[in-house]
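Reply to dn_fold:

You asked what the input looked like. This is it:
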Amino acid sequence: MSIDSLQQRLAYRFRDPALLEQALTHRSFGQPNNERLEFLGDSILNCVIAALLYQAFRDIDEGDLSRVRANLVKQQSLFEIAARLELGPHLRLGEGEARSGGFRRPSILADGVEALFGAIFLDGGFDSAHGVIAALYAGVLKTVDPRTLGKDAKTLLQEYLQGRRMPLPVYSVVATHGAAHSQTFEVECAIAKLGITVMGGGASRRAAEQSAAKLALEQAQTMAPGAPRRSRGKGVGTAPAASPDSIDCAPHTA
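and this is what came back:
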């Protein structure tokens, strides 16, 4: 695959091709590799994303801004950018790393994206790096909900209920299955005021609670004022209960 196609997707053409080559070189291939560029690119990325968030969300406090930034610069987000750039085939990997599928590995691809940002900064300055990063994140910034991004299901459910002055949900371990080293848990999440009782499963109690909280939140958000529905396990039944004052919470996006 031509390196020109990568530069077209980046919307940036390198003045010094050696910087681009280094950014694409994994340590398994040899020296010079992209580790130092990755270090630099990580700092550039955090700075640019912080500035973009500061400008886009003027009513969000620093704690929420930090949480959103952390989610936008984490490995999964960078891996998704690498996929859009079709970065994998351009990476220079050692023979063993290439045979083991390193060009598809999220950590290697995410590091490569950061190295590209570092290389662009050295090649064209901060404004060039800012422009590339801003373009790659433009779609995400248009759709991201800073109130929910990065929050887990239990936190979102708790905030949803507290915002409506309702009691917090009650979590109960209903059953455990399997040997001690490979147990699975079933947890019930009950919201008495809404008449919601759902079950979630997972390889740990925490994972099962998160699963149950997600189901409970989805059900609470879709309930109209009036007699709520009750669900147990994976089935859904009906039961009378008090209705919420209003259901207008934004959906979880992350």
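The first strand starts at residue 170 and ends at 177.
Hope that clears it up.
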